């Protein structure tokens, strides 16, 4: 197993994009890098219980870690998904969209059976 370090902190199992549970678009990477507060944190993608449909997507800048995290570095941005969320996000895409009504990160999850109207939660 290969582990990745960010500023000397062990943050989990490093994988290549082919083995990372999700696809991240170039625009999402650019926008996340622009929003990052400092170079000591990384982007954590997770699921938590809640929302209209049962599971809610979560995006945060984090500096905490676990050995069960899946870690990939793309264009200088370290992205982490916890081991519990990874199987449920397999095949999903994180994108960024902008239009006259709203701008922000958008999850596209082909495995979701039901989603809420705003797109921030889903169920299987």
Please report the number of helical segments. 2
The tally of structural domains comes to 1
- Overall structural class, as computed from helix and strand content, comes to mainly beta
* Overall radius of gyration: 14 Å
The CATH level-2 architecture is identified as Sandwich
Beta-strand percentage? Answer: over 45%
Helical proportion, percent range: 10-25%
Strand order in the sheet with the most strands: 1-2-6-7-4-5-11-10
Summed up:
The protein is mainly beta. It has two helices and eleven strands; from the N terminus they run E-E-E-H-E-E-E-E-H-E-E-E-E. The longest helix is centred in the N-terminal third of the chain and has 10 residues, at 26-35.
What does this structure look like?
- The protein is 11% helix and 46% strand.
- It has one domain (3-123): Hypothetical Protein Aq_1857, Chain: A, CATH 2.60.300.
- The strands form two sheets. It has an eight-stranded mixed beta sheet with strand order 1-2-6-7-4-5-11-10. Strands 3-8-9 form a three-stranded mixed beta sheet.
- The protein is mainly β.
- The mean pLDDT is 80.
- The protein is globular, with a radius of gyration of 14 Å.
Topology summary:
Elements: E1 3-6, E2 9-14, E3 23-24, H1 26-35, E4 42-50, E5 54-62, E6 70-74, E7 77-81, H2 86-89, E8 93-98, E9 103-108, E10 114-115, E11 121-123
Parallel strand pairs: 2-6, 3-8, 4-7
Antiparallel strand pairs: 1-2, 4-5, 5-11, 6-7, 8-9, 10-11
């Amino acid at each position: 197993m290969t582990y990745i370090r960010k500023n000397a902190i062990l943050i989990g199992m490093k994988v290549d994009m082919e083995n990372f549970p999700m696809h991240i678009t170039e625009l999402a990477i650019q926008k996340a890098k622009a929003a990052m507060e400092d170079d000591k944190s990384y982007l954590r993608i997770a699921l938590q219980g809640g929302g209209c449909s049962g599971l809610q997507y979560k995006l945060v800048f984090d500096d905490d870690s676990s050995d069960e995290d899946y870690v990939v570095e793309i264009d200088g941005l370290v992205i982490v998904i916890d081991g519990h969320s990874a199987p449920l996000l397999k095949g999903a895409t994180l994108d960024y969209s902008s239009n006259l009504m709203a701008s922000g990160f958008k999850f596209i999850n082909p495995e979701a059976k039901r989603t809420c109207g705003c797109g921030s939660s889903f169920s299987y």
